[in-house]
Structures are given as C-alpha cells and as structure tokens.
Amino acid sequence: MSKRKIIVGAVVLVAATFFSTLGGLYYLLNVGSGDAASTLKFVRALQIIKSRYVEEVPMDTLMTGAIKGMVGSLGDPHSIYMDPKLYKEFMIETEGSFGGVGIVVGVKEKMLTVVSPIEGTPGDLAGIKNGDLILQIDGKDTKDMALDEAVNKIRGPEGSQVVLTIKRGDQVKDYTLTRTNIQIKTISGKMLPGNIGYIRLAMFNENTGADFIKKYQELESAGMKAVVLDLRDNPGGLLEESVKVAGKFVPRGPVVSVVMRDGHRETHTSSLDAVKYPVAVLVNGGSASASEIVAGAIQDTQAGTLVGTKTYGKGSVQTLMRIDNGAIKLTIAKYLTPNDRSINGIGIEPDVIIEQQLNGEAGTDIQLNKALEIVKSKL
User: Fold this and answer.
1) How many CB atoms lie within 10 A of CB 1?
2) How far apart are CA 155 and CA 62, in angstroms?
3) Could you tell me which residues are beta bridge partners of residue 131?
4) What local confidence, expressed as pLDDT, does residue 93 receive?
5) Which of 79, 300, 316, 329 is catalytic?
6) Which one of 225, 244, 314, 329 is the catalytic residue?
7) Given the DSSP bridges, would you call strands 305-308 and 352-353 parallel, antiparallel or unpaired?
8) Is 300 a catalytic residue?
9) pTM flag (> 0.85)
10) Active site residue 334
11) Catalytic residue among 289, 291, 316, 329
12) In DSSP terms, which residues pair with 105 in a beta bridge?
C-alpha cells in the first residue's frame, strides 16, 4: 500500500472514531500541530453535519464530498476525483473506445476549453475546433464547473443528445450533438509524392506505440525517404507510448525527464543510433501533453523541424490511485524536454510558424505543404 493511501486511511479512521481510539491518538502524536489542528477542524465539521443536519446523510456521501473538495482545493484542472462511473469511462477511453461526442476538453484560464476534436466524431463533423470555449452544457453554465463534472455531462448513452453552447471569438452558437460510441483509431498514414511518408497520430492510447511502429515500417518498406509527422489536434495520452514514438526520431539520449516533488528525476531515453530521415512535425494549439513530449524532444535534439502554431502547454504528469471503486487522478510530477525545458502553461513555439487557412484552391493544407517543402529541401 502506498504512503498516500496510508495517510487517507488514517484520516478516515480518525474521523469515524472522533479520536476516541489509540489509533487516533497515535495519528495526532505523529503529525505536526498545524496538521492536527486542521484534521480536528475537519472532524468537527463532520460531527456537526452528522448530528445536526436536517436529514440523515450516509457517511460514504460525506467522505466522497470531502475527497472531491480536497482534490478540488489544489486548483489543478488535471487533478480530479473519479467516482466509479467516471473511472470506468476513463479506463475504457485509454483502451481505445468510449461513449460521447468526440471532443477532448480541458481548463484554460479557468474556462472549459476544447483541447481538440477527435477526427470523424460528432464533435469534429459539427465543426467544433480546438480553442473553442464551452459556456454551457445542456443549458447549465460551466463557470466554476469541475472538469470531471463537465466530462460526465458531455458523455452519455449512445444515441442521446447533448447541447453545447460554444464561444469562438465574439460568436456564440449552440451545437446539438448526438452521442455515439467513439472508436479511436490513433494511427493513419500514406505515402505522398516523392516518397514522403505521412503519419497522422490522433492521440496516444495503449495501442499507439505498436501501431505507429507498424505503419512506420510499412512506409519504410515502400521506399520512404522523409517523414511528416502530424500531431495537430492530438490531445496526448500515455507517456510511455509517446516515448515509443519519439524513439523512431530522436537520436540516442533523453526523450523526456519526469521530475517528482522531492526532486527525484526519471529520464526516458531513445536508443536510436542516428536520425534516419528528414522529419517535419505538424503542431497546433490542440497538440498537448504526450504529443508535446514528442515534439519537444524532436525540436531540442534538432532531429526535425516543427511547423504550425504554438502547442497547448500541458507539461505535467498524472497518475491514477485507486480508492475503492473510484480513483484519484493526481498530478505527481512535471516533465522536462531534453534541454530541461518546462512547457507547462507555456507551450512549444514551432520552428516555422504558419497559421492554417484556406489558401488558393479550396481545402489546401498550407501547413502540410510547408512541411513537405522543408523535408524535400533536405533530401
């Protein structure tokens, strides 16, 4: 059992017994006076509610509320308490499918914000874009709404509808979306003229590393001479999978370092002998977390050129710690790029900044065209 779980257990024990046991006394003797006073305040509040509230309230309800309040007091949108339902949905999502409308949301400047839509999903097809602000969900204001509550409200049974009130610039519009079972295909790719391999990563789930290597080897066998890696609107995911992807581009050495609260540093490395092909990486404001790990490592090691617009800026690491049938997703570390850059709240500036817009022929992807121009110049 982890130290954190032991501490939570002690608090619950003390609360349940109101310090009438030797265990509670031992707890008080082994924490600082400030911590003891705060714990006594918590227990006093619990005692008042249990004895004086107009209706009987189950202890489990009160404890769940206390845990949510503790995690919420951190002021970190990436640290949340997951009840059993949300935890189950989260685990399904990392395994490759989940129910909803296909948008990844986060909190930026205290506003519920679309990090990225997932390709081919109801949110994407409706025209929702990264950076859109979600003002309301089914008419309920999202101001001060916890991230997990917002996620719960957006998700729902397949075939049901949800109305999102979206603000983009000065325009506010309601989007009525029909929920569906979101099947995430994280990797797609093809060979472009001139034997330029194009690989698109939608997100990083537990299959991404293996699927990416398979697509990479497929293009390599077909005579690939250069690579364009598309990480636009990739909201991230599993750190381990991002290291696997980076290992095909970043020369031998650090990919990312994870720094814990106590200063302990864990560095993930690449074993690639040398960069094999010219590489361009497409990024934008929807490129976050694990995709920023890949982009930052490629930029720092000069293994390739980043093209597009500034990334989202999520440079923290979360872990899941089970509590009964739920879990706490808690920020436990920050990550640093190979040059020891922290990009949290800052993002990564691409080497070549180019806004995406329709230019000339309808549908022209000028960011992709620039990336192709760059890798061809290095052949």
Assistant:
1) 6
2) 25
3) none
4) 61
5) 300
6) 314
7) parallel
8) yes
9) no
10) no
11) 289
12) 114
DSSP states of 142-153 as a string? -TT--HHHHHHH
Q: Which domains does the chain have, with CATH numbers?
A: 3-57 (no CATH), 97-182 (2.30.42.10), 184-377 (3.90.226.10)
Residue among 96, 85, 86 nearest 181 (CA): 96
Q: Which two tokens stand for residue 68?
A: 């949510």
Query: In the numeric block, which tokens belong to residue 195?
Result: 């034997």
Whether residue 300 contacts residue 343, with contact meaning beta carbons closer than 8 Å, is answered with: no
Separation between Cα atoms, residue 176 and residue 74, nearest integer Å? 33
pLDDT for residue 165: 97
Task: Give the DSSP H or E segment for 297.
Answer: helix 290-300
What is the total residue count of the chain? Answer: 379
List of E strands, the chain? 80-82, 97-100, 103-108, 111-117, 133-137, 140-141, 161-168, 171-178, 180-183, 187-192, 196-201, 226-230, 253-260, 265-270, 279-283, 305-308, 316-323, 326-336, 352-353
As averages over each run of 10 residues, the pLDDT of the chain (379 residues) reads: 30 37 46 70 88 91 89 89 80 65 86 86 92 95 85 87 96 95 84 97 91 97 98 92 97 96 95 96 95 98 98 91 90 95 95 76 80 96
